[in-house]
Design the sequence.
């Protein structure tokens, strides 16, 4: 039975209004999210004197790249970048692999003490001994000034294990049963069937883990005194606190009158430029993993 013309037109009008409001809201929300990064960027490439006086608001003026050229000369920045990249790549890969394997194991009824081990892992999400016991534990494990301090504590992540477990439980058991009938063992089933099917949730975990590893600096603050293990975020933290001192040093070493007033570094431009250098790499991760992220956050939405 066909709908009356008035009802049909009313439904179409309602859908149109909803879509307009929906797109308008999310477009504005996107602009609000992008605006701080845009403001940061245009101030790093504009006349430093105008930036110092707060006159750069929306359009860059007196464009130059001297800020980036000078900031990249800061001592320890390149080494810190390598440490952060290594920590992010290795740490995220280890977390994803461990979360996937442990999440798969706790779905198997034949696993010895499955419920106990699962609850034992999950309870650590809600209870923490605190900062001092954590530091003492890291000292006893000899993880001071040790790159493994960035990797080992984050390998087993209870929240990620919950996500993987829930996702695996939505996969039809018949897929695993057919592989078992063909002679595949648990590890073979995990590698050949479970791992490919859980790509969306694993990509989501990879994003969360990568952002967490990249942005972390407190563990460096407490555990590292050797500059070889300083991360980019920790170096940023130091430079933000020492911006005035750095600006005076870099101005004095800029080669006399070769640098004009518009390109002379100021504490404000150092803070903004270093912040942009630190933020930009992690922003590149999202476009490649976004399609998996959308699938991953829909976990459990459709079952049956």
Sequence:
């Amino acid at each position: 039975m066909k709908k009356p013309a008035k009802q049909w037109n009313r439904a179409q009008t309602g859908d149109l209004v909803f879509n307009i409001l929906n797109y308008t809201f999310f477009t504005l929300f996107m602009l609000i999210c992008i605006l701080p990064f845009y403001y940061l960027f245009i101030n790093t490439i504009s006349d430093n004197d105008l930036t110092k006086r707060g006159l750069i608001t929306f359009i860059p003026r007196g464009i130059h790249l001297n800020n980036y050229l000078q900031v990249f000369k800061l001592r320890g920045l390149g080494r810190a970048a390598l440490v952060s990249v290594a920590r992010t790549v290795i740490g995220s890969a280890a977390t994803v692999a461990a979360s996937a394997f442990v999440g798969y194991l706790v779905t198997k009824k034949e696993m010895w003490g499955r419920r106990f081990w699962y609850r034992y892992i999950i309870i650590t999400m809600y209870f923490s001994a605190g900062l001092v016991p954590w530091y003492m534990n890291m000292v006893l494990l000899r993880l001071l000034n040790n790159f493994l301090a960035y990797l080992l504590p984050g390998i087993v992540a209870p929240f990620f294990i919950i996500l993987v477990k829930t996702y695996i439980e939505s996969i039809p058991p018949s897929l695993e049963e057919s592989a078992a009938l063909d002679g595949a063992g648990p590890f073979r089933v995990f590698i050949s069937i479970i791992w490919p099917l859980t790509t969306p949730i694993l990509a989501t975990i990879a994003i969360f883990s990568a952002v967490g590893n990249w942005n972390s600096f407190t563990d460096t603050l407490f555990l590292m005194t050797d500059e070889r293990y300083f991360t980019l975020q920790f170096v940023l933290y130091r430079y933000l606190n020492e911006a005035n001192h750095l600006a005076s040093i870099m101005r004095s070493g800029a080669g006399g009158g070769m640098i004009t007033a518009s390109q002379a570094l100021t504490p404000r431009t150092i803070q903004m430029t270093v912040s942009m250098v630190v933020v930009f790499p992690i922003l590149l991760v999202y476009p490649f993993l976004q399609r998996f992220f959308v699938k991953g956050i829909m976990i459990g939405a459709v079952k049956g």
